[in-house]
Amino acid sequence: MNRERHVVSKTEKNKRYHHGDLRNALIIAAATLIEERGSEDFAMIDAARRAGVSSAAPYRHFKDKTALLEAVLEFAFFTLGLEAEACAAKEEQGSVDAIIAIGKGYIRFVTGHPQFYSLMWGDSSLRQVAKPDHNASSSGFYVLEDTVRAWCLKIGRSDEDALALSIKLWAMAHGLSGIAMHGHIDRFLPGADVYALLESTTHTFLEGVKHSKPGSGLAL
Amino acid sequence: MNRERHVVSKTEKNKRYHHGDLRNALIIAAATLIEERGSEDFAMIDAARRAGVSSAAPYRHFKDKTALLEAVLEFAFFTLGLEAEACAAKEEQGSVDAIIAIGKGYIRFVTGHPQFYSLMWGDSSLRQVAKPDHNASSSGFYVLEDTVRAWCLKIGRSDEDALALSIKLWAMAHGLSGIAMHGHIDRFLPGADVYALLESTTHTFLEGVKHSKPGSGLAL
DNA sequence: TTTGCATGTTACTCCAATTAACATTGAGCA
DNA sequence: TGCTCAATGTTAATTGGAGTAACATGCAAA
After folding, report:
1. What's the pLDDT at A207?
2. What gap in Å lies between CA B205 and CA B210, rounded to an integer?
3. A178 at interface of B, judged by CB pairs closer than 8 A
4. How much is the average pLDDT of B197-214?
5. Which of A57, A88, A121, A149 has CB atoms 3.0–4.6 Å from A159's, for a disulfide?
6. Which regions of the protein are recorded as binding DNA (chains A, B) (predicted)?
7. How far is CA A204 from the centre of its chain?
8. Rounded to an integer, what distance in angstroms lies between the CA atom of residue B47 and that of residue B28?
9. Minimum mean pLDDT among A4-8, A103-107, A161-165: which range?
10. Residue B219 has pLDDT above 70, yes or no
11. How do the domains of chain A map onto residue ranges?
């Protein structure tokens, strides 16, 4: 029996009693299951199986299923932040194109990972999560904010409204993503393209900003 | 025993074998539970109890819990539509104020019923629901569209872009609602008011529309 | 080495969804 | 009238999955 410990067969090559990185393995497993099943309604034991452990093991790392989902949520926000950074880096800093690129990246991420979207914006029981730390969820926003701030200065304008503008731009991308993902664009405006809609909306909005007086209620 | 059928006590006054309107009673019960518990994660049997029937009775009206949730979803969209209508009716038809009022109504509904929001925008397994019929979910949008169309004509402009504009305005209100509800506005722009943000965003955007050339990529 | 704590395991318990089999009622028809 | 059926309810399972208890393993520090 105990010999087996040393004479490891091919199939059980990686089977040590202690996983080594179970916490992260479970997060990945859960994320994958969510992608596959199209909802966060997977069985804990399936995540455990994927990670190659028993059904009770996950509870050493996560208080309950919600805690695991929260970790996946954090992971999703983190990934989104990286995406935003990559998008912005490809364009001229402070350009309208950079702002649009970030927005398009947002849409691409959201529509490409609809299950994560549900996790991030859907479940009210996880809504609390957004509070405590979320460096992860913040990073993406700060990329946008920097870009908007640079744009403000570039058009010869104070950047005092940059924060409010960023929120508004975020809201546009976020709103269009959600509406698109739920098929409402296809329904009401068949043939329209979300990315094109984002682009025109952004242009129109920024045009409106240019024509507005600073401090005239823009940055409430 | 059978005498009891006629000698009905006060406490069992309303207890007939057949409920009479169980389907709707269950929808209301479920909606109430969702409001109370703050999530759609209520027990089927609780909804049944509220409606005064046994745990299995709901399955005569709904294939499964998801089907019941779908019905609640429809109900929520319907309510939202009524809300939009009421908001628009209070303002001058085709005015910017009317557009803003609808947006504010949207935000009020969403932030006032966060659980419904989850139902409408969160769960991917219910996303399909939006497809088949949804007269309910449409009505609110058409109220907005009519208003926008009137606005276009009022500013001496073709209303060819009204549909696209409506989608964009919806997206703004929707995006701001979601972001606000998840505490991101408090986080990034403490002290800001969603309603004020919606108002300024709408003004800025419509200003941008006025300054844009019709057909210049606005209505993609 | 030995011991302690983190991490896993197996074997429950419990809860809630769903189903099966049977009961009650009302509506339409002989 | 009174019978019969379809719709709607009821009770009593079955099932699946979350979470827990008690025990096992192994790494790491003394």
Report:
1. 94
2. 9
3. yes
4. 93
5. A149
6. 43-62
7. 26
8. 9
9. A4-8
10. no
11. 1-62, 73-213
Range among A77-81, A144-148, B187-191 with highest mean pLDDT value: A144-148
Percent of chain B with pLDDT over 90: 53
Q: Is B83 helix (H, G, I), strand (E, B) or coil?
A: helix
A98: number of Cβ within 10 Å: 23
Q: What is the pLDDT of residue A15?
A: 64
Report the residue from A114, A184, A203 with minimal CB separation from B124. Answer: A114
Which of A134, A135, A174, A199 should one mutate to test binding to chain B, selecting the residue with the greatest count of B CBs within 10 A?
A: A174
The residue of chain B with its CA nearest to that of A214 is B204
pLDDT one-digit tens code per residue, B66-109: 999 999 988 888 889 999 999 999 999 999 999 999 999 999 99
A129-CA/D23-C1' distance, Å: 35
DSSP state of A146: H
| B144 close to B87: Cβ distance less than 8 angstroms | no
B123: left (phi over 0), alpha (psi -120 to 50) or beta: beta
D14 C1' to A33 CA distance, Å: 27
Q: Maximum CA pair distance of chain A?
A: 81
* Other CB atoms within 10 Å distance of the CB of residue A114: 18
Residue range B73-213 in CATH 2.60.40.1510: no
